[in-house]
Amino acid sequence: MSKQTPQDEAKIVAGRRVIEAYLKDGMQIGLGSGTTSYAFVRVLGEKVREGLRVEGVTTSTITRDIAREVGVPLLDINDVTQLDLTIDGADEIDRAGRMIKGGGACLLWEKIVAYTSKRMIAIVDETKMVDPIGAFPLPIEVIPYGWRNTMHQLATLLATFDYDAPRLELRGGSSDPVVTDSAHYIIDCHLDAIPRADELAPLFNQIPGVVENGLFVDICDEIVIGHFDGSSEIIRIRD
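Predicted structure:
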């Protein structure tokens, strides 16, 4: 087994803080995707074995497999009207809760589950806190049919936000594209910074061919941050 890095340990710290601060017996929760979420699910499995009674809805097949491995009971999202909360990571997040998600190509399921929840808690290590967001490439989930045309329309939209010929890439390339759990493609937009995320986010989904975008704005209620020194903190975005 490889030795854990300080970043790995910070993710575990954040996961333990989330469980202490938020989880109660009987809750139905959304289980996010990405390395921090996977660390949380493994910690959650420990608590379930100790007697914590919760049920989860997963945001990816990877999360599903990890949850089953560690013994977290799972529900089908189609059998749930509303979850108590969702706990998910972020590729980048600012202190107002604006996030970029989708580095693991799970953004569509992640957004569906987040919107199904009463509250959404972002769980991150300290490296994910940035201002502004945008250094991480922004993922856009698109249908395979006409993806080059969709990419052209994305570039046209971004030009109206003063992005001059931004670099847009089909993740994996045209010969071996990454395929999401919903059988879609991912186009990564290299924008460097997104100071107008609130304005830009709803416009992506107006483009035919776009299924969902990786800007998560006005979704996060609280942020739990794990630090390399072993401490953690909670930032409350809204009550």
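Summary: The longest strand covers residues 120-125.
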